[in-house]
Design a protein that fits this description.
The protein is of the alpha/beta class. Helices cover about 30% and strands about 25% of the residues.
Length: about 290
C-alpha cells in the first residue's frame, strides 16, 4: 500500500512531538508535498550537499535530518545560495526534507539522548532535565554502567561505541577516577553540567565543550567531563529513528541511514613536547 509524505510526517511527529522543541528551533517539514508517495526514507545528522547527493543517488523521496537547514529568518531560497541550492535539488528530484532537532533530543525511548545512552550501555536511565508533562522526556540522560571503570577506561568505551572522528574522544579529570554513574547529552550539552553534578554523575559526556568552563569545573567537586564530536554524539539516533519509522509504518517504507560522515573536521595532529613547554597531560585515548 502506498504511503504518502503526510503519513510519514504524522508518524515522525508522533515520535518526535514538535511541542518538545525549543521556541527558537525550526523543526518539521521543510519542503515536500504531503500528498506525494514515499517509498524510501534516508536519515542523516546534517542536511549538507554530500547527503543530498546520497538522496539523489539512492532515489529516496524523503530526507530526515537532526540538524535544521534553516535556523534564522529566511526570505528566499534562490538556487545560487548554498542552502537554497539544496532545497532546489531536493524538490527537482522529488524529495522532501523533514527535521527533528530539539524535539528529538527530548523525546522518550527513541530520541537522541536515549539512543546515546543505549550506545554506551547505560542502565536505569532517566532525563537530566525532565519536561513537566512527561517524566520520561527531557534533555540529557543519566544512568549507570554495568560495571564501574576508571575514567581512562570510560574514554576507551566511548571511542569504541561512537563513530570514529578526527577529533576522537578527550576527557578532563583524573584518568584513574572511578566512573559508574554517567550523564550524557547529545550535541552541545555543557549547560547541563550543574544538573549532572546535582544528580551525582561521575562524568558528563557531551560535545562542543569550551576551555574556560571545563577548566573551572575541575577546580571544584563535580563530574569529570568527556568531550566527543557533535556529529558522533548524535549519530546513534539515526538507526534507532529509522527502525522506529519502519515499525510505525508496518514496513511500508524502506529506511536507510546515510553513509556520509558529516563531521566537519578533516585532519588532526598530536602536539609534541618542546623544551621549556609544560609536560603533556596523561593520554587517555590513542
Amino acid at each position: 500500500m502506498t504511503v504518502t509524505l503526510g503519513e510519514v510526517v504524522a508518524a515522525l511527529e508522533a515520535r518526535y512531538d514538535p511541542a518538545l522543541a525549543e521556541d527558537w528551533d525550526a523543526v518539521g517539514l521543510v519542503c515536500g508535498d504531503p500528498d506525494e508517495p514515499v517509498a524510501r526514507v534516508l536519515f542523516a545528522v546534517d542536511p549538507v550537499a554530500a547527503v543530498v547527493d546520497e538522496v539523489v543517488g539512492t532515489g529516496a523521496q524523503l530526507l530526515v535530518t537532526h540538524h535544521p537547514l534553516f535556523l534564522t529568518a529566511v526570505h528566499g531560497v534562490p538556487a545560487d545560495d548554498p542552502k537554497g541550492r539544496l532545497v532546489h535539488r531536493l524538490v527537482r528530484h522529488g524529495a522532501g526534507l523533514f527535521v527533528a532537532h530539539t524535539n528529538a533530543d527530548r523525546a522518550p525511548g527513541t530520541g537522541v539522548n536515549d539512543a546515546l545512552a543505549d550506545a554506551l550501555g547505560l542502565q536505569g536511565t532517566a532525563p537530566l532535565q525532565p519536561v513537566p508533562t512527561d517524566a520520561r522526556a527531557g534533555l540529557g540522560r543519566i544512568g549507570r554502567l554495568a560495571e564501574p571503570v576508571p575514567l581512562a577506561g570510560f574514554v576507551e568505551l566511548v571511542a569504541a561505541a561512537l563513530p570514529g572522528t578526527v577529533g576522537g574522544v578527550r576527557a578532563a579529570g583524573d584518568p584513574s577516577r572511578r566512573v559508574e554513574t554517567v550523564a550524557v547529552c547529545g550535541g552541545s550539552g555543557g549547560s547541563l553540567l550543574p544538573a549532572a553534578a546535582a544528580a551525582g554523575a561521575d562524568v558528563l559526556l557531551t560535545s562542543d565543550l569550551r576551555h574556560h568552563p571545563v577548566s573551572e569545573s575541575q577546580e571544584v567537586p563535580g563530574p569529570a567531563l568527556c568531550d566527543v564530536a557533535h556529529f558522533a554524539s548524535e549519530w546513534p539516533w539515526l538507526p534507532v529513528a529509522a527502525d522506529a519509522l519502519a515499525r510505525d509504518l508496518s514496513g511500508r517504507v524502506e529506511v536507510a541511514v546515510s553513509r556520509r560522515r558529516t563531521d566537519p573536521w578533516t585532519a588532526h595532529a598530536a602536539t609534541r613536547e618542546r623544551p621549556g613547554s609544560p609536560p603533556p597531560a596523561g593520554r587517555l585515548s590513542g
